[in-house]
Amino acid sequence: MQTVTADTDGRPSSGLTVTVSALMVEMAFAAAALWSWGVTHPGPEDESGALAVIVLPFFLPVVAGVALILALTLVMPTVALARRAGVRWGKAGAWWWVPAVASAVSAAGVTVVGVWAGFRGGVAAPPVYLWWWLAVTALIVPAGLLARLARRRAAEGRPVRARTVLFGGCAGVVAFFMALLTVAIVMESAFG
Predict the structure, then answer these.
(1) 159, 12 contact by CB (below 8 A)
(2) How far is CA 32 from CA 28, 37, 49, 141, 167, in A?
(3) Share of the chain above pLDDT 70, in %
(4) Crossing angle for the helix pair 162-191 and 15-40, nearest 10 degrees?
(5) Is residue 167 helix, strand or coil?
(6) Which 3 state secondary structure label does DSSP give 6?
(7) 12 φ/ψ angles, rounded to the nearest 5 degrees
(8) What is the pLDDT of residues 119-169, one digit of tens each?
(9) pLDDT grade, residue 7 (50/70/90)?
(10) What gap in Å lies between CA 77 and CA 109, rounded to an integer?
């Protein structure tokens, strides 16, 4: 990854920093949604969840590491492929290349994991792979769009700060996950 301009305090900032930050925000929203789901649909032996609050600071480095791995293996290749596809087939820099390529990248990733699971004897039903494809695509798209925004800002010579991009794009991430949660609740209500 190439480092772009420096922040006002002298620290370098890059698209990778923005992507990892966005993925951590997405994971926080996903954890909040799962917690909300658990509160509204308690199991027979659920505990209060107070232990999670105590252990949370110890999981932050793990979450950052997972976000870095996801950024390097899924999001950054998606942004690079979207840029190349835009240059090759027209409309270079169009935002919609990121979701289009993200769906293909996530399909490839889910297929690889599915084939690996098949060789290990753990094949799941086709709807499981469809849900995983949707979940991975939903993970890649917001972070990819924010990374695209960071790249565009750097190309224009404006400083790229993870804080600026996240505050500017965080509303989109929140809206995306709220829409996803609403669809999940409606589907659960309709289909039980």
Answers:
(1) no
(2) 6, 9, 12, 19, 19
(3) 70
(4) 30
(5) helix
(6) strand
(7) -70, 150
(8) 888 777 778 888 888 988 988 888 888 888 877 777 777 766 656 555 655
(9) very low
(10) 12
Instruction: Please name which of 85, 88, 62 lies closest in space to residue 148, comparing C-alpha atoms.
Output: 85
Give the rounded distance of the alpha carbon of 180 from its chain centre: 13
User: Shortest CA distance to 74 belongs to which of 96, 114, 112, 106?
Assistant: 106
Q: Tell whether the torsion through CA atoms of 154, 169, 73 and 96 is positive or negative.
A: negative
Contact at 8 Å (CB) between 140 and 26? Answer: no
Residue 35 corresponds to which tokens in the numbers above? 């917690």
Residue 12 in 3-state DSSP? strand
55 to 30, 48, 58, 154: CA distances (angstroms): 17, 14, 6, 37
Q: Crossing angle for the helix pair 15-40 and 126-155, nearest 10 degrees?
A: 140
Greatest pairwise CA separation for the chain in angstroms: 56
CA dist., res. 71 & res. 162, Å (int): 14
Token representation of residue 69: 């791995």
Spatial distance between the Cα atoms of 142 and 176, rounded to a whole number of angstroms: 8
C-beta of residue 119 within 8 angstroms of C-beta of residue 100 = no
In the block, tokens 């769009």 appear at: 145
